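#struct-queue
[09:14] JT: dropping the first one here, sequence first, then the structure tokens:
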Amino acid sequence: MDFPVTLDSQSNIPLHRQLYDEIRRAILSGRLARGKRVPSTRALAESLGISRATVTMSYEYLLSEGYLEATTGSGTYVCRQLPDELLRVKTTARNKESRAAGQPSTRKANFKKLSRYGVNLKDREWLAYRGDEPEIQFSFGRPDWAEFPSRQWLQLLNQHFKEGALWQLDCPSKAQGFLPLRQAIASYLARARAVTCSAEQIIIVNGSQQAIDLVCRVIVDRGDAVGIEEPGYIGARKALEAQGAQLVPLKVDASGLTVEPLKDPALAQLKLVYVTPSHQFPTGVVLSLPRRLELLDWAERTGTFIIEDDYDSEYRYKGRPVPALAGLEHHDTVIYMGTFSKVLLPALRLGYLVVPPSLIEVFKRAKWLCDRHSPLLEQMALADFIKGGHLERHTRKMRALYEQRRKTVIDALKASFRDNVSIYGDNAGINVLIRFHNCPADNEVVEHARALGVGIVPTRHFYLGDSPRGEFLLNYGGLTDEEIKEGVKRLEKCIYPD
């Protein structure tokens, strides 16, 4: 290139996106003139010291958006008719008309309309999922939906869709959720998680993310200090940030969340602490019983609420299950949340909150303001699914299946990487955290893996502070044994490119 290109391998922005932005800016600023030939993908990759796949991906975006044009047998050139040039002309004309009429520009007016909540979301680049998925996807924590008991589920849906029951589908006042489902969940939690609660304490929500968002809106004011795990779940962090919370990272070690730092008098002002004690995300460690009791004691003394996200507690392969925090405390400090996304289907969009009795009314009203109520027909079917014992039978079946896949993942990783990889969190859930002791930059691994048809996610997005290099999350729930083995083999080529 005729201009300096600066790429940051430690940035959260992928290398192909950084290169795309650099070339695009150069074209729009005139540093790359229209009609000028650009280097070949091979030549540019060699000069920048990055993979050719990264350069190819950047060029493909620029070609598809009209910044570059390719001539067969000749090369790739800067397009002579730039799309942004036309857009600038139209925008400038509109702005002149607005100023002539004494009105502010459209851009400024739109910005003024955003709330602090909206501005907070606007200023953060995330949820930038690509539409095209690789052949083998380790990135998303999906269950194996091919094993879902669809026949039984459809029978229950049809049963509740009979003409005589249609009147039940008009329930605008049932924001809290279908009562038989709440009763079934209360009974299930008593058996499976030692959580004693009434159906009245349960709020049905559209999955765990809505549960987190509701808690943030009801409990947290702008500027409130909130403790979160470090590393931790990005969905909770973003919801808290959008609400204006001041996040206090709490380190996670082999026994889970470290409680000792909470004893600092300065942290007695925390409004809320968010934890994933049964299978910490993303490390996979389990919060030990002594620390659970210590955390509950601290929360009672300080009056701090705890969000217990029990997102996949059903899948545990080693040792006895540790009781949920909500099953241990009796002082109304824990707000417990669960979801059916991991044990059944993500698209079902049903989860639940168990709130202290004193908060029932306010959470019912907050849910009503969001969406009136969660899908009712699915709630009816799920109530019967749980009461008929289908949920627990399905869970036992899937636990055995995922335990086999867990073994396949570990065996494949050890066979390919031997002493160059450490594996964490393999005793529960449907993912493992792996750390390579010697590997290329995280972005390079991700891009190379995608070029080979494998999706993999580095853990740097889950840290507020510095993150370890070479640390990745591997989700295996939705993959077959053959896909897992093939995916790890392809990943080996990314870690040992030579």
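[09:21] JT: and here's the second one, same format:
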Amino acid sequence: MTTENPFGTITPIISDAVSCGDSCCGDDMASEITHAQLDSITAVVKHYYGNLASSAAELSADASRVKATDKFYSEDQRDALPDEVTGASAGCGNPVGIADSQRGETVLDLGSGGGIDCFLAAREVGNNGYVIGIDMTPRMIELAQKNAATLQTENVVFKLGHIESIPQPDNTVDLVLSNCVIALSEHKDRVFYEIFRILKPGGRFVISDMVTSEALPQDVQKSAAEWVECVGGAAVLSEYLELVEESGFTDIDVVKEDRSRPDAEDWQSTLINLTLRAYKPAE
């Protein structure tokens, strides 16, 4: 691994890093990363979320911590899942809650983490349906597989892979979910093209993600701490929607658009928790 940092000066991840949406994309986790490890955003993200996977049960049991699931998921959804599932959740919305998964559908979740959206979707698609979780962090895949065994869920499989190159054949998925993950990608155009590729004609995606109303300051875009919190890589909303349209999607619907930090007065006031739905045209 090269010791040269192509991102210029990157602010190290520290234990008191601000989390996006007050709790959406993880927590204040001490992550000691060497300069050599900061040669790519992918390495930083994988390191951070690997730590999150290892600490999931402990984080969920911390009564002083405001979890993403507390903010975005219903009590019924939370009660249906063990602590290690909810503890590893780091979203900025609840896409599975509005996706209207149908019996027998095939659902794929990008950045599946500990499996929260996969397990909730699995209940909706039933025994004749199928759910696939994709995550690039080996420790998250291990945690999700452990959680699946605990829940005795048989219609979910977890695959190690990158959202820019999804390990799934063309035209095989009815619904794609994602929760505050595309903001972590440096190549969002590839992500949307991949989603389009794997969806069946007439298929849809429902995603929650972090976007902004205007471009972020350069120092924020170069901050490793802000990247892992889904902030540094957040795209401007208008540009984000253009990427979706350019990828071939139609019936693009902004389902929800909330200020992530409504009390902020600086650049943080531009952060938006977005939930979006769009369709691949039917043949």
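[09:30] RK: nice, looked through the second one.
[09:31] RK: Residues 20-279 form a domain with the Rossmann fold fold (CATH 3.40.50.150).
[09:31] JT: good to know. The chain has eleven helices and eight strands.
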